Amino acid sequence: MSDPLLPELLRLAQEAARRAGELLRDGRPADLAVAATKSSPIDVVTEMDIAAEKLITDVISGHRPDDGFLGEEGASREGGTGIRWVIDPLDGTVNYLYGLPTWSVSIAAERDGERIVGVVAAPMRGETFHAVLGGGAWATGAWEGERRLAVRPAPPLDQALVSTGFNYVAEVKAHQAEVARRLIPLLRDIRRGGSAAVDLCDVAAGRLDGYYERGLNAWDVAAGDLIAREAGALTGGRPGERPSRDLTVAGTPGVFEPLQRLLEDFGAWHD
Question: Beta 189-191 vs 161-164: how paired, if at all?
């Protein structure tokens, strides 16, 4: 890590993610209430979601008061350092509400628009993933020490395990279900984990061969995309494009391109 700024940003992201993860894990009330709604009544924002984002921004601002922010729950500040933090304080909100373990805290740092640090903490899985640009992807968990991540060797597409996600708006979800219906016979199987950040990290860790989803925002993918790429995955959107709200695709080399082509043919990005 020749750039002295990268270790500082990584340590800060790890500390903020750890503390937010502990808040969410240990502070989840039994009668968890809904503070607001997102795109539909099913897709909820919880009180804990908002509290976690405030904790993260407070931690980061305490060390770097002039940096910018982009957060899912409204944190927005231009900043004056060229560093912007892209934050999803609780990715997998519905899983969290239902007591399912697949939810995460996702924090990325960008410098002049380029992602340079990513941290994804999955407290209920006891795992934290991190990467810095050019430094590989790593994880801590039940094993001893840090483990360097690497994607799986690419199988034939019909043996690939691929994850996806679904929108909470009924019409969009119906179209996504049709795309999945067409894909399933061409793959080993499809999974639906419920946290885009965790899915991208599972590609990095060799637990999935690919992942795709439509309708994601920058905070959903900023950290996970960097972690996946640093582990050897390819990522993108529609052919020739970067990940976007239209489409996000990640996969091992050998799975990424045929999966991306199928998604384009099936109109996975269509309204």
Answer: parallel
